[in-house]
């Protein structure tokens, strides 16, 4: 049992990676579409590249979406509307008319008797209300067939048979002329106008239900291809009916493949392909980015972002496939470049697009556009902490999407008459969503403890609390840190290292000195050396402790680990030679271990650059009459001595890069210590 725990402890990192690999694979497989993959790849407007294709089984030809949409519109346009008839209204109207007639009829004013008017109105009202009265405005033609629902019975009518209240005046005039009672025309019209009420209303719910039933009954198929029938010949252009037949075969093939009998085999196939993608990622990190591979937090961060992109794309596709380009896939290489480097960003982007190829429709077009957009993202976005750069890059990415989509559409359709302009809006939305990279980077920094160039820019501000404290308590050390930062930044730029990271590391590398500033020569005033009264061992301990105290201060002030690495490694395992030699002179012998920094030695180009720049800048203060030759020899001696001690063995830095750094340091120091012309008094 003890051996088992020991084995687990030794391989804890590897076990975690295996667990992450399995979980990620299962999650991606869960998100993949539940259907087999069609073995032929074809595009509208392109020639069929395979041999003659014959139907492997009988299948129906599906109508395309445009045809179905047109048929739905025709059903809706030709649907027979339902109107609800209220039989009680007629009786109320007759009763109200008779009551009003009694109060307003005056014998002396009219020749026509009251009873005659009453009988005439009753017949008129009954006749009009028989087919129904409406005050609603519709766009139906007069000969449009409608259904009149009277209780449980349905009667057919023409829309023109419904009486509109606006026609009352005309109808009353015809009535009085026919019955020769013109003297009561005004009275009759006024009374009828007051009491007329609509007894027919459109039943929208019943009409819509009828339309929905017809749409549901719509046949999505338009024909059958029998087994063995030729579908398309080699070299024939995929367009029109041929394209729709192939799409129907593809849909049928995928639905038949994903059956209970084949379910296990499809899972095996998906598992192998997804596993290969993640295996490639692990191999890339292990061979070319070991510092990421050995850090489980960083590996988890990369896998999380891959899953997030696949998840978002799947979610959008469930809403509508047209919105697939709204998902800001290019935010992935953007973020990975901000935290790592362009090659990692591009490699992970490519692998993610390969996974999305299983999910999206028109996978070739989608993958092509996303590959190009990802490359543009990597090549154009530099110095992400500059806001203008992000806006410019997003504009370029959006333009690439639009041009690529337009080119594909022209190739497939051969014209631009049917171009769907709203898709350009989706690309613009995608570009705007990509601007979310900045807040997302901040969020990731807090969750995963990573550091981006945006945070490094904030840390490089010399007005920050910690650097202000350093400048107040140890002004000499602060000035030294600024000089080292300038030297290190110039060197990093020359060999292609992370100049912003080096600069920040240089600014904070000596913060441990501010706890005891007068014990360091750059802060000693009036040539008073506090070490003269101390034992060499004590002096060496104070000097060495500034590294450990610097780490403590940095952690207390929540500096990122990448910056603390510079504090930890800027002296490596070098010897405090001055006090070691003094101890040996006083005691006759000295234990080297008492005078050696705890390390570790630099393990990146950036930390190696800082060690060189720090040593050269500090030692340059001892030069009394610096000349170009003296400076050159001085730089060579210090850096060659560090190389001889093996300080750069873990730093992944080449001899050529070290020589380039030497040249930069020599040039900079020569500029600092150049001779000035003596001006007369």
Automatic annotation (TrEMBL):
UniProt cross-references to CDD domains, sorted A to Z: HDc
NCBIfam families: HDIG
Species whose genome carries this gene: Aequorivita antarctica
Domain of life the protein comes from: Bacteria
Segments forming domain HD: 477-619
Coiled-coil portions: none
Protein name: HDIG domain-containing protein
Keywords: Membrane, Transmembrane, Transmembrane helix
Sequence intervals crossing the membrane: 14-32, 263-285, 297-317, 323-339, 344-360, 390-412, 424-444
A Pfam family assignment: 7TMR-HDED
């Amino acid at each position: 049992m003890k051996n088992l725990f020991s084995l687990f402890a030794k391989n804890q990192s590897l076990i975690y990676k295996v667990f992450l690999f399995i979980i990620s694979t299962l999650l991606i497989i869960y998100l993949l579409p539940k259907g087999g993959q069609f073995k032929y790849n074809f595009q509208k407007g392109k020639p069929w590249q395979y041999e003659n294709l014959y139907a492997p089984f009988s299948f129906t030809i599906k109508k395309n979406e445009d045809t179905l949409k047109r048929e739905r519109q025709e059903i809706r346009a030709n649907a027979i509307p339902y109107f609800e008839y209220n039989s009680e209204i007629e009786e109320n109207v007759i009763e109200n008319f008779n009551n009003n007639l009694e109060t307003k009829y005056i014998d002396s004013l009219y020749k026509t008797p009251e009873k005659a008017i009453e009988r005439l109105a009753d017949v008129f009202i009954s006749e009009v209300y028989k087919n129904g009265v409406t005050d609603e405005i519709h766009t139906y033609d007069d000969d449009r067939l409608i259904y009149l629902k009277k209780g449980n019975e349905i009667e057919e009518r023409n829309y023109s048979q419904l009486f509109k209240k606006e026609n009352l005046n005309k109808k009353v005039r015809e009535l009085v002329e026919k019955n020769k009672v013109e003297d009561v025309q005004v009275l009759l019209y006024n009374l009828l106008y007051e009491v007329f009420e609509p007894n027919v209303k459109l039943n929208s719910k019943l009409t819509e239900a009828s339309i929905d039933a017809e749409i549901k009954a719509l046949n999505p198929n338009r024909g059958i291809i029998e087994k063995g029938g030729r579908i398309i010949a080699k070299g024939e252009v995929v367009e029109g009916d041929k394209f729709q037949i192939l799409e129907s075969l593809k849909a049928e093939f995928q639905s038949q493949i994903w059956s209970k009998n084949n379910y296990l085999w499809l899972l095996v196939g998906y598992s192998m392909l997804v596993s290969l993608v993640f295996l490639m990622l692990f191999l890339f990190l292990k061979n070319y980015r070991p510092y990421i591979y050995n850090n489980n937090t960083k590996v988890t961060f990369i896998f999380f972002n891959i899953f997030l992109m696949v998840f978002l794309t799947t979610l959008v596709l469930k809403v509508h496939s047209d919105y697939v380009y709204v998902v800001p896939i290019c935010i992935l290489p953007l973020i990975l470049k901000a935290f790592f480097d362009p090659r990692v960003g591009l490699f992970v982007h490519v692998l993610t697009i390969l996974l999305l190829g299983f999910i999206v429709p028109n996978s070739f077009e989608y993958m092509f556009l996303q590959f190009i957009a990802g490359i543009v993202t990597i090549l154009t976005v530099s110095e992400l902490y500059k806001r203008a750069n992000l806006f410019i890059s997003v504009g370029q990415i959006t333009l690439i999407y639009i041009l690529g989509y337009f080119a594909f559409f022209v190739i497939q359709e051969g014209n631009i008459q049917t171009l769907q302009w709203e898709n350009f809006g989706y690309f613009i939305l995608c570009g705007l969503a990509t601007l979310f990279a900045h807040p997302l980077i901040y969020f990731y920094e807090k969750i995963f403890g990573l550091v981006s160039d945006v945070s490094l820019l904030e840390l490089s501000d010399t007005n920050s609390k910690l650097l202000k404290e350093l400048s107040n308590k140890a002004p000499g050390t602060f000035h030294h840190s600024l000089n080292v930062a300038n030297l290190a930044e110039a060197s990093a730029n020359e060999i292609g290292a992370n100049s912003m990271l080096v600069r920040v590391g240089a600014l904070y590398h000596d913060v441990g000195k501010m706890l005891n500033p007068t014990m360091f020569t750059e802060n000693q005033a009036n040539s008073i050396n506090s070490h003269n009264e101390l034992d060499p061992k004590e002096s060496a301990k104070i000097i060495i402790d500034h590294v450990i105290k610097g780490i403590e201060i940095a952690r207390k002030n929540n500096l990122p680990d990448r910056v603390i690495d510079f504090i930890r490694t800027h002296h490596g395992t070098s010897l405090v030679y001055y006090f070691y030699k003094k101890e040996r002179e006083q005691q006759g012998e000295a234990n080297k271990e008492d005078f050696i920094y705890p390390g570790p030695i630099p393990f990146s180009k950036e930390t190696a650059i800082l060690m060189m720049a720090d040593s050269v800048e500090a030692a340059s203060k001892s030069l009394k009459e610096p000349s170009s030759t003296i400076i050159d020899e001085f730089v060579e001696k210090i850096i060659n001595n560090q190389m001889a001690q093996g300080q750069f063995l873990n730093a992944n830095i080449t001899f050529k890069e070290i020589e380039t750094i030497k040249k930069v340091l020599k040039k900079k120091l020569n500029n600092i210590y150049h001779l000035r012309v003596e001006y007369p008094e």
